[in-house]
């Protein structure tokens, strides 16, 4: 009997490659495949009717009017000679027959598959309220166009629900436009999910200093419309009723994995599990050789984070992971490479550049290491069990490469830097991250548990609170803290600032 031929995907540059997800990761993977010599049939499937476009400008540059949403199309680095199936969402995966099922019923056969389906905006939980004219999310080109039109109309007050990076950037744009804006945040500070409450105290002071009506430890209980189904009012958990014309729902994201239900992969609401080579695990915990994952939808192990599977919603990670996946789709066992990109991200808001390296939500402790009150500049370092795992800088991006080296070297926490602009004494304090599973923030990068077969779990008795963003996590505060009280809050990073530091 003749032996069967080796699998087509084992180092082959021919065959049929299908990429589900026609955004940044999908496009860059397709370009990398061609650059590495793939000669076969290449198909990209996308649920939106547009060519791949850049998402970060949607909440900032587009809203400021610097560019239109039509001009966010990603530049092509090479001709990928691909078949584009845009506006044709995938609704199922048939692994035995090696086919992707489209919404119109058409099957798309493949030899190798790359999943880059990314995320979507978490919607407001009440469908009737979410459908009111003026209730918006911000994730897609269409979302950006709608928000820009509503802000350009000059609303009397904008409500931003959620003070993660997206919500904070929208609030910043509103203030730059001279619009009154109220921001509600379920946690104790803005950016608590991404940077923790200690560092978030700096973000709270920044927002209030620029005229934002910031309501922390506060949720929106209901949105109300008029007889014409236009948004008119919001009920807050602190007892206030606000007259608002626009409400931007910025409650984080949901990973697009529903189409994989029952397909036999290790995929759930946290993402699709893959190994460091971007190969997907099946439901039995066995790694595949022909299914790959990259970008926001991937859950993958990073060697610096104790085997935890990370989800990373950063531009740079999407690019580097897509390129690694493409390489490994064409590689043999001895030429595969691991994806070890250290997550990094940045945001411009309220005239301040905030940039981070590593995975802050992995940390339990944070310490202020450098500060300049005159320049409104600071650097904070995050530690986990005595090791540096992340750093964040405000108005000091050029300082981060040195901290990246410390993270990669597994340097001890707190660091002994003896910086000329450092505080007299390092004062580590709890980082103050929300409970895992809280869906009212966008962490950017976060650990999600270990092992491909670890089930999704919620804390018993807390499930409803964690899942429904309308329900406060604790008792509503009697009073709202003012900006000049932020620096004295217990557990605030600003406790470590010398007298007079970082206040305006």
UniProtKB/TrEMBL annotation:
It comes from the Bacteria. Coiled coil: none annotated. Residues 16-322 form the FAD/NAD(P)-binding domain. Residues 414-456 are annotated as: Disordered. The keyword ATP-binding does not apply. Pfam families: Pyr_redox_2, Reductase_C. Keywords: FAD, Flavoprotein, Oxidoreductase. Residues 345-418 form the Reductase C-terminal domain. Its cofactor is FAD. This is Pyridine nucleotide-disulfide oxidoreductase. It comes from Dictyobacter halimunensis. The gene is hcaD.
